[in-house]
Amino acid sequence: MENSRRGAVSSFTHREYADMYLIYGETRKVSTRGIVSLNARLAARLYAERYPDRMSNPTYEVIERLDSAYREGRIPGARGSQSGRPRTIEDDVVLQEREEDPSTSVRMIQSRTGIPKSSVHRILKKKVSISPIPHSKSANSP
């Protein structure tokens, strides 16, 4: 089944996101050791079976990103027609991370904030007089 909106998380309605997340919760399994697991692939299949009349169905990647967004306190699709985060907020977050620890790498800022590495690099190049921290050479390299 082909999905024309593949990778575009914000292209679903709030109702569709809610349905996806409820179905995702239904896939919860607890192992004998008490480990909880959720199955995004199964959730995507169940969604397609339950809502065959909807224009498109999510892939398992969409459901995993939806779960990640909710866990991070974001609500997908809440920005309406805007796409992406407002740059001023991104700039402030990146600069605050760099101010707190000037030795913080681009990848570390990316992992802490969820802002793409290329955006972090662009912001640091544009806003900070010094360039981002270069990769350190190992002791064995010439």
Automatic annotation (TrEMBL):
Residues 103-113 have a biased composition (Polar residues). Residues 71-90, 97-118 are annotated as: Disordered. One of its GO terms (biological process) is regulation of DNA-templated transcription. One of its GO terms (molecular function) is DNA binding. InterPro entries: Tscrpt_reg_IclR_N (IPR005471). Residues 99-125 form the HTH iclR-type domain. Signal peptide: none annotated. This is (apollo) hypothetical protein. It comes from Parnassius apollo (Apollo butterfly).
